[in-house]
Design brief:
7 helices, about 20% strand, FAD/NAD(P)-binding domain, about 350 residues, binds flavin-adenine dinucleotide, alpha+beta, D-Amino Acid Oxidase, Chain A, domain 2, 8-stranded mixed beta sheet, 2 domains
Length: about 350
């Protein structure tokens, strides 16, 4: 394995769990890439009735449904709590059009979600979580969960170690690492996508910067996530609440936070008055690995026998991790290719 972000660690763990001997090489440190952030929303796509339902959305749903078992096993194996909880999500409905659309989504969820979660329109709760919308209504689902990104990585690293896996941090692998590995999986984030595309002469897509922050607000860990006006408010078990995220195609410094984050914070307080006055305890920025299609790229590395790619999880790497780990372990260890077509790295 190469790359100790959420994809590399989840695949490494899944392979070790199935009995493989695993070494994971990381250029810097566990979580030094996009996965070392603050947010950790595990939220399904809106179950629209029409053509908007894609194999990726269905795959993400399967992965979210697998998450409770996946994370429970990781916690049990390594003894570290990843901060996973299925606390649900509230989306305030701003106007009559939003209420009409929500009604259609509730109906579509009946078939699309196939009993794995419930979606309903409910009265907005009192108490500023969220600000009361003009309609007085919210869309509530019980499928959405949260996970603490940094704790999840630590939990995976501990679980991997418990199964005899090794992490070598502080050394970048070149594109043909030596050693006796029978297979090498490259889960190297935005840098890896750029190198892959350059090597194959294809469009790299390009990373999308994101900024997020965390405030201290104890006592709300069991509340549902809020998804309002494009932003997420995610209460974590450690007494922090994460607020995310910006999405920036153009930026000067990929890892600096700036006024856009302060504007996001102000918007979050307006959407969720319960956050007012809560002190900021962390600010963070990173680069999301976005492929040319915006979808994951998984599969054998064209022209490099024994090498595989797991990348391009873009905005939902934590949500997709259990599913991608299973797909890649099937492929690498058992030669079974169940990768949905639109997520497969095109051969040749
Ligand atoms: C602000 C923000 C908020 C987000 N919120 C969410 C969210 O709420 N829910 C969600 O599911 N997702 C979220 N995401 C997206 C999620 O973080 C990414 O999809 C995910 O982290 C990608 O993981 P990765 O393992 O592919 O890449 P990375 O985490 O970037 O890992 C790649 C690793 O490979 C290493 N590496 C690179 N090259 C080499 C080399 N040659 N040799 C050795 N090591 C190498 C890097 O150092 C790095 O550690 C968010 C992203 C951002 C930026």
């Amino acid at each position: 394995m190469v790359g100790a972000g959420i994809l590399g660690l989840a695949i490494a763990w899944e392979c070790a769990r199935r009995g493989a001997r695993v070494r994971l090489a990381e250029a810097r440190a566990v979580g030094s890439g996009c996965s070392g952030g603050l947010v950790g929303a595990l939220a399904p796509h809106a179950p629209d009735a029409g053509a908007g339902w894609t194999p990726l959305k269905a795959f993400q749903l399967d992965s979210l449904a697998a998450a409770p078992g996946f994370w429970a096993e990781v916690a049990a194996a390594g003894g570290h709590d990843p901060g996973y909880a299925r606390t649900g999500r509230l989306q305030p409905l701003a106007d009559a059009a939003a209420v009409t659309r929500a009604a259609a989504q509730v109906q579509a969820a009946g078939t699309r979600w196939a009993g794995r979660g419930r979606l309903e329109v409910v009265p907005a709760p009192a108490g500023g979580w969220p600000a009361a919308p003009a309609t007085g209504l919210c869309l509530l689902d019980d499928l959405t969960a949260r996970i603490h990104p940094r704790r999840a990585l630590a939990a995976l690293a501990a679980a991997l170690a418990a199964r005899g896996g090794r992490i070598d941090a502080g050394r970048a692998e070149d594109e043909r690492p030596g050693g006796p590995a029978a297979a090498v999986v490259w889960a190297t984030g935005w840098e890896g996508l750029a190198r892959l595309a350059a090597g194959l002469g294809r469009d790299a897509g390009g990373p999308v910067k994101g900024q997020a922050l965390a405030v201290a607000l104890p006592g709300v860990a069991g509340r549902p996530l809020l998804h309002a006006g494009g932003l997420f408010v995610v209460p974590h078990a450690d007494g922090t609440v994460a607020i995310g995220s910006t999405a920036e195609r153009e930026f000067a410094d990929p890892f600096a936070t700036d006024d856009r984050l302060e504007a996001l914070h102000a918007a979050a307080v307006a959407a969720c008055p319960a956050l007012a006055g809560a002190p900021v305890v962390a600010r963070w920025a990173g680069l999301r690995p976005r492929s040319a299609t915006g979808r994951p790229v998984l599969g054998p590395w064209p022209g490099r026998p024994g090498h595989f790619v797991a990348n391009g999880a873009f905005r939902i790497g934590f949500g997709l991790a259990p599913g991608i780990a299973g797909l890649m372990a099937d492929l690498v260890l058992e030669g079974r290719d169940a990768i949905p077509g639109e997520m497969r790295l095109a051969p040749g």
